[in-house]
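A quick word before the example. In earlier lectures we treated sequence and structure as two separate objects. From today on, think of them as two lines of the same record. Here is LysR family transcriptional regulator written that way.
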Amino acid sequence: MPRLNYHHLFYFWRVAKGKNLTQVARELHVSQSALSMQIKQLEEQMGHPLFRREGRQLHLTEPGRIALEYAEEIFNKGEELRAFMRDHSTGHTRQLRIGAVATLSRNFLEAFIRPLLPQEDIRLSLRSAGLDELLKELAEHNLDLVLSNIPVIADRERSWRSQRIARQAVSVIGHPDKRAQYTDIGDLAHQRLLVPGPHSEIRMAFELVCQQWQIQPKIMAEVDDMAMLRLLARDTQCLAILPGVVVKDEIRKGELIELGQLTDVHENFYAVTIRRQFQLPIVTELLKRGSEDILAVS
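And the structure line, produced from the sequence above:
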């Protein structure tokens, strides 16, 4: 059998992932006919059809799925090598690229990176976006680590490593004049509430507690962004369900108080990485820290 043409394999890999010849051809700056011809030549070399066409849709055959698994490993290793060489090409400066989901507490993010800030040989790159976008960047080795308050489950395509690195209590937060109106969770039935969005772990745990206490909460607003939730807690007369650390500055100034912690309601923080041949030592060191160590300065 002739030597494998990796150029053809790369084209197959892109089409198998994209499932659209026209779009992939445009991204690769080749004609659709040239792209189809190169895949056909790969199929001839393999001795098996890699795709079957149903209307305008391309579907992988069984040999195609096997070829895709090998191609994924080959080209992901290539991207990892490129990222490794790039990150070690700036002399003694170590580069660390961290992605943080947009809903993550900025106080927590600052606390997580705080040990790195005095180190003059480290260059940090911080990126905020949605979880799906950040995971894509992580898979392409454009990020070294993703911080999330949502757990990530490994699937057939990606062997994510999702490690819980911290957990903090969630409280009922309000203005000082609300102290007399709150003694226990049952009082929440009579208050207008600010709560995290419906996909938040905090929100799901809070709803379970409400069910246990047979409470129908009066929700004034549900907010994904902790920074916005903090502003609404400060600027309205509603009670807010959130970790006290989010409003630590307002609590210190006396603008808000922690009326009480909610039993069995927590915010979890996860560090998500992907299996790499060369894991950065600085990432390993960061992930060795305990929850108390991280939260102590947040």
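Notice the following. The chain is about 40% helix and 25% strand. We will return to this example when we discuss secondary structure assignment.
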